[in-house]
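hey so u asked for the seq, here:
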Amino acid sequence: MSQTRYRGYVARRDYQHARYCIERVQAIWRGKKARGNLDRLLQQRAAIDIQAYWRGHLARKAFIEQQEAAIAIQTAYRVKVCVCVCVCVHTTHALGAMPHVL
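ran it, structure tokens below
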């Protein structure tokens, strides 16, 4: 009976050791896989951040260009109005009449 118990003990010990080794290999593999997924997620997030920054840069640039164009148009219009008013004032003044401002 003693030999039977010893063989049982050895079989259980070998089984537990094999199970421990298998679990350890699986844990290492799962950890490596999880780190790979994390690296991929971090790279995707970095790419998204870069894309968002670039889209914002382009939007700000377009806005500034539109703003500058609007200012140029407004300036040209105001110059034209001022020239017309000045011409009217000088013409009216030269004729001796009272100037009227538009």
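The chain has one helix and no strands. The two ends are 123 Å apart (CA to CA).
lmk if thats what u needed
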